[in-house]
Structure formats: C-alpha cells, structure tokens
C-alpha cells in the first residue's frame, strides 16, 4: 500500500487552483444534472455488496433508487426529504432521514472542499469502460480521512471512490457498468445551507450545517465538509429502546446519553471528530 501511494504521489501533478476548481464544479453539477443507471460494487473490509442504482430528476428534484443485488431483497428510494426502504415483508415502508434524502450535494462547494483538503489532479484511467480522471483529496488536518475519486471525463460523475486512513483502505465504491443520458438535464439548484442557530452545539472547523429534518422526538442535523457527511441524531426514548449501531467501512458512530434522550453522531470521519460534534449538546 505504501508503494502504491508513493507511486500515486509521483505520477500525480499538483493542480492549479483553476484546474482543480473546474473538476470540483463538474462533480457537483453532474450529481444534479444527469440521469443514469448502473451497477455499483461496495467494499468495506471483508464485506462486499452490489447494488443496482439509478438517478432521475423529477420536477427539479433529484431522486435516486438503489436495489440490493446480494442478500435479502431491499430497495431504497431517496428524494423529497426522506429515504424510503422497502423489503420483502408486509411491514410498512421505513422512512429514513438520511443525508441522501435531504439532498446534501456529493461535492458542490469548491470553497468548503479547498478549506479542508489539498486537491491533486492525477492521471487518466478507465472505470466501467469509460475514461476517467483521478482526483486525490489530502486532508489538511486530522479531522477527516483522505479520499480518491475517479471522475468520468465526459459527465463529471464519480465512477469510483476510495476512503483511506493512513495506509489503510477503509472502503471502496465503483461502478462496474453505467449508462448516462446523452443530454444533460436542466441544472437544479442545491439546497441552501441551514441556519447556524438551528444547531445547539459547536461543529468542528470546516463542517457546515446543510439541513435539519425531523421532529422534537427524533431530529437530525446534517453536516458536510464538502466530501464527508456527518449526521447527528437526537432521539427521545426510554433507555434500552435505542437501536444497535453497526457501522462499517469508513463509517463511524458515537453515542452520548442525556436525560430522556440519546445523541448519536454518524459519519465517514474519525471517531474523535464525531465526539467533537457531541461536546456540550446533551446539556442544551
């Protein structure tokens, strides 16, 4: 792994501000301007999963479907403020308040990304039979993980991504096949950030509050540093009724109990970063 990283550093060229900004803008717009469908393989440690994914844009809103191709049949449909998960049982669909559901952009804010990462534009490659350009994101502090993305040259869609902690690969995602619409749809605007006063704590440097959803019984705050996404949940319930957490890959989870409620921070960042989100919120 160290040899691979050394070769990567030698072959990659430090991008000019304009060049890397252009790629970041393309990534952000692609996620909201194209319809596509394809097969995605996700690897986290020894776990491997495969999904059939698709994206459409309806009435100016992004809607994404993901169908599990391994294990129990399950479909997740995200859009309009919730992510609806359906399985094979007769139980009602479960509504999940997720970063995807509240339309947090995958990568759209060049300023925020540059505040948190050094962006390196690397060599061309191929993923799913399509030409791509590799982008590397080196964190400027210890609050986040390093990342690599292989961006489709034609559309700007990330077709492969890797999250790294030191010399250890935490998770990988790649398209094995993808079909993209030949015509770019009318660009849609990303949701405006939520007001800072909607968060009762102090977020770590570099993270912006993007959305607040839910009710007083279960509320979710969604933060992003441009690449990583952190969700903080405040749930009111009796002790012992909270669900167990089983994060995998780059995902980490930290909980903190307060009278009548539990605070949970989940995201693809180090655990120490999640703890900083929860500092002081239980008493507020």
CATH topology of the largest domain: outer membrane lipoprotein receptor (LolB), chain A
Averaging pLDDT over every residue, what do you get? Answer: 78
* Total helical segments: 4
**How many extended strands?**
17
Spans of 5+ residues with little confidence (pLDDT < 50)?
A: 1-15, 90-107
Tertiary shape: globular
What is the helix fraction of residues, given as a range? 10-25%
Strand content: over 45%
**What pattern of helices and strands is seen along the backbone?**
HEHEEEEEEHEEEEEEEEEEH
Radius of gyration: 19 Å
User: Superfamily at the CATH H level of the largest domain?
Assistant: Lipoprotein localisation LolA/LolB/LppX
Number of domains: 2
The strand line-up of the biggest sheet is 1-8-9-10-11-12-2-3-4-5-6-7
Distance between the termini: 44 Å
- How would you sum up the major sheet? 12 strands, antiparallel
Helix-strand category: mainly beta
* Overall CATH architecture of the largest domain: Clam
Features:
single chain; about 280 residues; mainly beta; outer membrane lipoprotein receptor (LolB), chain A; Phosphorylase Kinase, domain 1; 2 domains; twelve-stranded antiparallel beta sheet; five-stranded antiparallel beta sheet; 17 strands; disordered N terminus
Description of the molecule:
This protein is mostly beta strands and 284 residues long. Helices cover 15% and strands 45% of the residues. The protein has helices at residues 2-11, 17-33, 110-116, 271-278, and strands at 13-14, 36-44, 47-58, 61-68, 75-79, 82-86, 94-96, 117-127, 130-139, 146-152, 158-165, 168-180, 208-214, 218-224, 229-235, 252-258, 261-267. It has 2 domains: 2-180, Lipoprotein localisation LolA/LolB/LppX (outer membrane lipoprotein receptor (LolB), chain A); 196-283, Phosphorylase Kinase, domain 1, CATH 3.30.200.100. The chain has a 12-stranded antiparallel beta sheet with strand order 1-8-9-10-11-12-2-3-4-5-6-7, with helices on both faces. A 5-stranded antiparallel beta sheet has the order 13-14-15-17-16, with helices on one face. Mean pLDDT is 78; it is low at 1-15 and 90-107.
């Amino acid at each position: 792994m160290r040899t691979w990283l050394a070769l990567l550093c030698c072959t990659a060229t430090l991008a000019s501000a304009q060049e890397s900004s252009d790629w970041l803008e393309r990534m952000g717009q692609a996620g909201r301007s194209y319809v596509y469908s394809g097969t995605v393989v996700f690897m986290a440690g020894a776990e491997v999963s495969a999904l059939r994914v698709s994206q459409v844009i309806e009435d100016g809103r992004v809607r994404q479907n993901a169908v599990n191709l391994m294990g129990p049949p399950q479909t997740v449909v995200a859009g309009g403020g919730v992510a609806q998960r359906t399985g094979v049982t007769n139980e009602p669909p479960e509504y999940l308040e997720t970063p995807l559901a509240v339309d947090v952009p995958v990568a759209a804010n060049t300023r925020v990304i540059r505040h948190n990462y050094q962006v390196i534009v690397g060599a061309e490659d191929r993923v799913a039979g399509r030409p791509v350009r590799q982008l590397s994101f080196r964190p400027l502090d210890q609050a986040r993980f390093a990342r690599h993305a292989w961006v489709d040259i034609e559309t700007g869609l990330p077709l492969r991504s890797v999250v790294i902690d030191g010399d250890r690969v935490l998770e990988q995602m790649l398209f094995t096949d993808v079909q993209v619409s030949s015509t770019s749809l009318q660009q849609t605007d990303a949701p405006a950030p939520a007001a800072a006063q909607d968060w009762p704590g102090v977020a770590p440097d570099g993270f912006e509050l993007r959305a607040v959803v839910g009710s007083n019984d279960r509320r979710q705050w969604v933060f992003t540093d441009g690449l990583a996404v952190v969700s903080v949940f405040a749930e009111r319930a009796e002790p012992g009724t909270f669900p167990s957490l089983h994060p995998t890959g780059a995902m980490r989870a930290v909980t903190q109990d307060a009278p009548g409620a539990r605070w949970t921070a989940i995201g693809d960042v180090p655990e120490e970063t999640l703890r900083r989100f929860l500092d002081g919120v239980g008493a507020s």
